[in-house]
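Notes, Module 5: Reading structure tokens.

Key idea: the token line is not a picture. It is a compressed description, and you learn to read it the same way you learned to read a sequence, by spotting repeated patterns. We will look at two proteins. The first is printed below with its tokens.
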Amino acid sequence: MSGLVLIGAQWGDEGKGKITNYLAERADMVVRFQGGANAGHTVAVGGRTVVFHLLPSGISRPSAVCVIGPGVVIDPEALVVEIDRVAADGIQVGANLLIDVGAHLVMPYHKAVEAAEEAARGGLAIGTTHRGIGPAYADRCSREGLRAGDLVPPALFRERFERVAARRNEVLTRLHGAPPLDVGQALAGVERAAARLAPHLADTPPIVRGALRAGKRVLFEGAQGSLLDVAFGTYPFVTSSHTTAAGVASGAGVPPSQIGEVLGVAKAYTTRVGAGPFPTEAEGAEAEMIRERGAERGATTGRPRRCGWFDAVAVRHAAELSGFGGLVLTKLDVLDAFERIPVCVAYEIDGRRTDRFPRSTDDLARARPVFEDAPGWQASTREARRPDDLPRAALDYVRRLESLTDVPVAAVSVGAAAHAIVEFSEIL
């Protein structure tokens, strides 16, 4: 592995954090290239469960340099809280963390505006995390965002913050009838965080490119999933960044030719958080059984995830967008208890069958899944470490998903433990 990219192949929450942590044992550098504190990557570290939001999941590996790239939007106060929290879990963050000077900042006024806008949408709310991600990316595009490098010197940052905050207060009060932000109090919190983060600031793209040229093992970590990509996801029920492999080049500052191999990460079933169409969503006892066995609650919000069956149409779409060289299936063990396991092989939309993922979200909302049933194995997979250790029906299920998605399975995760991994390929 020189450059290796991990991309979510569904609507996020696929278990990318665990796979990043697993691969980081062999990585020299881990680079987070998009998203913000709306992501939640849960990993097992030293017998403890740790959730990362802004820190790259490889931060638990002292030998790896961890980079927050220019494509990420950073909440300075949230990042400081996270650094302190992981320190309490025995993970020290020091010179091994680099923050790109060009990464845009999520400010308190972004979160206030997002909350007001979601409330104004009423029944048409998108279901955002209220972390200010969308407004921060919007400010970046409208060229009035603040960047990590702007945190120093403090006097210049203060002037810029107060100017933008005053305009956002007009939006809050005049458009939404919401209370204004206390600018002084908000600024003081950001300035305290800025003093803590200043030593980590760096021009990171040359460092990442240099590592790749030197043959170092660089792992690019994505947040959310392909179906939440702002351009190719289920718009408008998407995030505000490019979650496919195309986002790596701009989000990390490396040429596409240097990115290297791309791995997709997908659950052995499907989940979704928030609003938007979800063709394979299960209902009733089956949905609740998946949710309970898989502990399916958002790592960032705590919201229960919507649960359903594996959607081969959606994962194949994600694979085509990013050019997956391999697929990592997670949470296969969640399906251990099922007698039968439906798999979506196609959609019917207005009476017509298709194996293509529709670009129109309205069309997807009308899609009805065409299921085939795979036999369950009703035996534990959690002790498996080699393909031959899996029950025959479980191995057949993995091979069927491989066939339906046209992507070779590189590995299967069979539990929350860090090394509960069955490797199928040397790609890892």
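Here is the second protein, with the sequence above and the tokens below, as before.
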Amino acid sequence: MASILTIRRWPGCIVIWFMLVGPSIGNAADAPVVTFRATVSEVRLTFVATNGRNQAVEDLQRGDFAVVDSDVVIRDFRSFNHSSETALNTVVLVDSSESVMKQFRKEIIEVVSLITGPQWMPGDRLSIVAIAGAKEQIICADNCRSASAAHEVAALANGGLTPLFDAVTDTAKSFIDQKDASSRPVIILFSDGDDTNSNANFRDAMTAILRSEAQVYAVDLNNPKSPSQGTAVLQQLAEASGGRYFPMRDDPAKILGNIMGDLHSAEVVTYAPPPSSQPFHSVTILPTHNLNLQFRCRRGYFNPASLDK
């Protein structure tokens, strides 16, 4: 008697059909079907390690740190690699609404410097999205490291309402839909953090970011002497995702250098998530030997089983 083994992949699991097949089609129709299910899940955590002088640690070893996942200490990692081995999938969100009018020209100069700089690797993808009006607008997608893309950014008009939370949420959801393990999702957000025209709210944006595993690097366009509620929004989005927040008073070249330095010096570790009935796992990375080491990563993740709900 012959046998046929069929494997099909579904989100979060592998379903295997093993069918015993007789010598004729009629017998095959009566043959029993046995289904085996195995859950397949893995946490991928991108982080930056710095020493006591706030410098990136270049020779970090897997024994130098442990992950605390919802009070469970993880030392048994499936993989530990330098982030340069993974291409970047970066979306730059450019706030071109009326509220950033005073800083708009300076913002555009910084964005153009970012997309035309030499720091990108051959496999990196870069998209530009403008935030203004009724809906965010895609300026260019995937391949925006060009003079033509820079020209389109420089020609952006300024004005209108600010659908900030919609733009962040939609961008994060696009990462979730793509779900490409060969690239790391990154959002570089130039904004004052104010939202005046979104269907989504701050909670929606934060949830989408954590589900997408994207790091957010936020450049605050507010006047540093007059912090606003938008400043707090930008800080929370960046810190919760494992990214960084930068006030506009910082030197533009230094801001861009710090962002790209982070992206190229980060580490990526993977491990099996500990059993838990909770939909959200909090995450912290702690040093095991050198207590001067500090680690920056996203604050948590959603249980892979909850992503299909």
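Summary for the second protein:
- Residues 129 and 138 are 4 Å apart (CA to CA).
- The chain has two domains: 2-39, 43-309.
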